[in-house]
Amino acid sequence: MCSTSDRQHPIDFAYRVHSNVGQHCFRAKVNARLVPLSYEFKNGDVVEILTHPNAKPSRDWLAFAKTSHARSRIKSYFKRLTIRKTSSWAASCWKRSWLRNWIGMPKPGEKTLAPCSKTSLCGRLRRSSMC
Question: Which residues of 46-69 are buried (b: 16+ CB within 10 A; e: fewer)?
Fold first, then answer.
C-alpha cells in the first residue's frame, strides 16, 4: 500500500513503483475499473498498473504527469531516443559520404586495393592527418 498525494495520476504512480513500470505502462485499473492514464486519484483508490513490453512513453504524458520524478524520466526517454536517432543518421551519412568519395575501390574480381592517389579519400586523409 502506498500513499499518494492528491491530484496524482497513474503515470506518477507507475514511475514511483519502478522506472521500467512507468516506461512500459499502457493502462491502469482503479478500483477494478479501467481508467485513462490521465485519471486523478481519489483517497482510498486501489490501483493496478498494466504494462506491455512494447509500450512506450508518449509526449502527451508530460501534460498530466505531476511529479518531477515521472516528468524527468519521460523527458530523459525522449532525449535518449533523439540521441539514438541522430547518431544512426550521422553514421549513415558518413557511410554514404565515404562510399561516394572513395575512388580507390577494387574492381570486381580484384584481390587487392588500388594504390591511393592524391585525389582519393585515402590520400586526402593521409595529407590531413596529424602524424
Answer: ebebeeeeeeebeeebeebbbbee
Q: How far apart are CA 34 and CA 9, in angstroms?
A: 13
What cell numbers appear for 104 in the block?
580507390
* The one-letter amino acid at 105: M
Residue 39: CB atoms within 10 A of its CB come to 18
Q: What torsion, rounded to 10 degrees, do the Cα atoms 92, 97, 100, 101 define?
A: -150
Separation of alpha carbons 37 and 49, rounded Å: 10
pLDDT digits (tens, 9 = 90+) for 25-56: 999 999 999 999 889 888 888 889 999 999 89
Tell me which amino acid residue 127 is: R
Segment 107-128, tens digit of pLDDT: 566 655 555 555 555 555 544 4
Q: Among 2.40.110.10, 3.40.30.10, 3.10.20.30, 3.40.50.280, name the CATH number for the domain at 1-90.
A: 3.10.20.30
Identify the CA nearest to 16 among candidates 56, 66, 57, 59. 66
